[in-house]
Structures are given as C-alpha cells and as structure tokens.
Amino acid sequence: MKDLNRLKALTPGVVYLAQKTFLFFLTAIGVRVVQQLVLCRFLAVGSFSLAQTLYWTIISRVFYVILQVKIRELWNKWDAASKGARILPVVKGRRIGNLDIMKKVGDMLEKGYPGDFLDEIEADLGRIFNTRGLWEDLIFTSSPDYIKRILATEFDNFVKGELFQETMYSVLGVGVFNADGEMWKFHRRLTRPFFTREKITHFDLFDRHAELAIQKLKNRLLAGHSVDFQDLMGRFTLDASTDFLFGTCTDTLQDDLPYAYSHLGNQSTTTQTRSSRFLEAFVDAQFLVANRGNLSSYWPLLEIFKDKTAQPMQVVRDFLDPIVVKALDRNKKQSLNDPRNSKEGQDIGDNDTLLDYLVKVTNGAILFVEVARYPIVIRDEILNMMIAGRDTTAGTLTFIMHFLCLYPDVWSRLREEVLHKVGMSRKPTVEDVREMRYLRAVINETLRLYPVVPYDVRASIKATVWPSDDPTQPPVYIPSKAPIIYSVFMMHRRKDLWGPDAEEFDPERWLDERVRKYLTESVHIFAVQCWSENLLGSTGA
C-alpha cells in the first residue's frame, strides 16, 4: 500500500522524466560498452572522460530520434506507394519541429475563434493534411466522407489510442469516454439498457429543476442584475443529470448565482458551499485535462512539480465516493434481505437510477476481480456520464438562448409553436416534441453552428487508404497509430456543403428546399446524428 501511495504521489512530469532518464542511462551504457570494446581494444583509443561519455550519449540519442523519424517516414512512403496512395501534404512551418504552427493552433484554441488558422491551411493544402508537430503525425480533416469513415464505416479501425487515454486518465479514469475495444463494448453493454424511452422522458424530474432555474433567473433579473446564462444552464443540467443518473442531486441551483463582473463586490460576500466547490472543481478538471492535448505526448513537461488535475479531482471524488459507497451498501442490504436480487440483479427497477443499475450489473462482473477496483469503475462511469449529461445539454441550451436573443423573429415563431402545441401549463410529451417541427429546426440549426463536440480525435490502429477528396489525385495514405483530429464545427460551416449562407443562423434551412438540396444528398454533412448513434453503440451509417 505504501508503494502504491508513493506511485500516486509521482507527478506526470516526474514519471515522464524518469522514463526518459532511464533510456538516456541505457544509451550511456551502450556508448561506454562500444568505447571499451571497439575503440580501446581495436583502435587503441583511450577511455572517455565523463564529459565525453555524456557528449556522445547526447549525440547518440539525437541521432537515434532522427533515424527513427526518417525510418518511419521512409516506411510510410514505401507502404503508401505499394498501396497506390500518396502521403498527406504536410504543413510547412518556419520553426524547427513546426513549433510556430503548434503555437498558432494553441493560441487559436485559447484566444481565437475555432478554425480561424486551420481555414487558411485547408485553403492551401486541402481538406485533409498533416501538421507534424515536433515530428509526430497529427492529421486534421473536416471532410464528411472521412468523418463518416472514422465514426461509422471504419469505426473499428479508429480508437482513442494510448496517448489520449494517458492524457485523460486522471479525469476520465476507466470510463466510457476513455475506453477502446472490448472495454468500450463493455461500457456500452453496461449502460445502454438503462437509457430507454421511459427513462429519458422523465419530464417530472427535469421540470422540477427547470422551474428552480427559471425562478433563480427571475429573481436575479428583478433585482436589476444580469445573469450568466451559461453558468445557470451548467447548474441546471448538472443538478438534473445527477438526480437522474444516481438519485442524489448536487443542488448547485440552491446556491447563489455568481454576479457579473460589474457586481464583483456583491459576489465577494457569497459563501462557497460544498456544491459550489464541486461544480468549480468539476469544470476546472475538464479544462485542465483538455489543454494537455495541445502539446501531444510532451504535455507532462508542464506538470513536473504537480499534477494540475489532482486538486480539483480530489474535490470531485470526495463528493462522488460517499454516493457510490452508499449505493453499494444499499445493494448489499437488498441482496441479503431478498436473495432473488442477486439472481435477477440485471433487471432495471422502475425506481432504479443508473448508479443502482451499475451496482447491480457489476456485482458479479468477472472483468473486475480486484475489490478495490470495483467502486472505482462505477465512479468513473458515472463521472463520464455526468460530463456527457451536463456539458452537451448546457452548451446547446446556452447557444439556443444566444440565437433567440439575436433573432427575435425566431423567438416569436418558436414561442407561438410551443404555446399552440403545449399551452401555458401542460408538460410536453414525446409526441409533442416530435410534432414541433420548428423547435427541431432551431435545435438542429444550433447544433449545426455549435456542435456539442466541435473537435475530436481518434487514432488509426492500422494503416489505411482513403479515396481522395480531389478525384484528380491518388488516394491518401493514413499511417498506423496516427492521431486524426476531425472538426464537425468546420464541416458544418463549409459553404460548398451547406450553401453560400452556411455561416448564417437560419432554422428555415431545415424546412425549405435547402434541406433537400444539401442535406438529403449527403446526410453525413450533419454529423451530430452520427456522433450520438456512435456514443450509444450504433456503428451503422
């Protein structure tokens, strides 16, 4: 146990440097052996000093890295040629290792607008290219055909990959969003039966939290203060999702809403509760782990002295662990009181939450033999579901409100449809939502311009060949283990796919001739449906 605690105390940077130091030490031994056996014995050259050994070790490591890169490049060119394909065009930066390109992309993600810099590269190199930051392949595409292959037709060949899993592990753990292969299929089998129509249309639960969110909004506006709507939606979706998923609400809406920057004096008097600390830590951990991806495999170098996610994740786990333990104890008592529960544990009860269901179905899972690992798997799973339940819905609701404020005519027409179909007080049904075509058009148009997953990454398991977007060019070669960033955000704004008004918000495009002219001809230019089916387990087109 002490050794395990010491291992946990090591930061990502220390582990990374230890691995590199070990390789450097092995190289130094190799240099010394070569010097003793070859130079001294056959060439009668004197022994190296420590400084000379260090010098030649550094030279050897640099030469090894260069040789490794060159061999990989030559192999890819040979393999591509043997398959009748061409190597992807590579971005040419002005600094060694394309460091300037990496910096521009990082600045775009942190300070700019998504896709600004990448648009320029696409105009020059085409819809798929290789950025080759620090001599590591990093492919980018916004082509619907290639995104379709990644998410559907060639789904089994594209995985999160080891780099992604190592980068995200401190937050996502062994949950579904950080799993590949059989583990991913296990997660899918584990959770999919719970998300039935009866469960996801639990309107009473969502209505209760919506009423509280609306009341909070009214109170703050009546007091003459503005409201951070994104924060409000984040609280609403987190409370609703935790209530739905494991029957214990985070109650972040019970706390005072934050004030705008113009009223910071009022905010300073607000007492931070346990729920507020959890919400802040929950958001911080996701932000920190997302930023790691900008440096590819070199991200641990920025976390030498501490794991930046450790502190916020400790707050998150302190909040979740008692909930998981309580569910485990409850299931144990139920099994003792009624032995049939252990045999029929995989049945979903009317009042079961996802957490209750996970405790039941994993109770006899052979995959997780270690007792200490069992609650960790459940905690990671519900945390992954919380991220999906909060971020996707909160982001979409925020952008919908953003557009409704900018386009009062859309607001009026949407309100008229809702009042006509549902009225002022009745709760909507699934049939009501299905029949409100303009509501669906507003949601679709919002998701088109601001998809819930604007950028995502997969890695190819084995080398593959894709047809070229340009019919005059040979097919393109995708190397094995190459990470591919695909941008639904940029694809949804392409004028050649959506028309000259592609960057304009217009729900009418989903109701008039444009839907037949553009979308019907190529359904995969709207990737939200494909992505959601993939998440739930469908790999069909």
Automatic annotation (TrEMBL):
One of its GO terms (molecular function) is iron ion binding. It comes from the Eukaryota. The keyword Cytoplasm does not apply. Keywords: Heme, Iron, Membrane, Metal-binding, Monooxygenase, Oxidoreductase, Transmembrane, Transmembrane helix. InterPro entries: Cyt_P450 (IPR001128), Cyt_P450_E_CYP52_fungi (IPR047146), Cyt_P450_E_grp-I (IPR002401), Cyt_P450_sf (IPR036396). It holds the Pfam family p450. Its cofactor is heme. The chain crosses the membrane at residues 21-44. The keyword Transmembrane applies. PANTHER family: P450, PUTATIVE (EUROFUNG)-RELATED (PTHR24287). Belongs to the cytochrome P450 family. This is Cytochrome P450. It comes from Collybiopsis confluens.
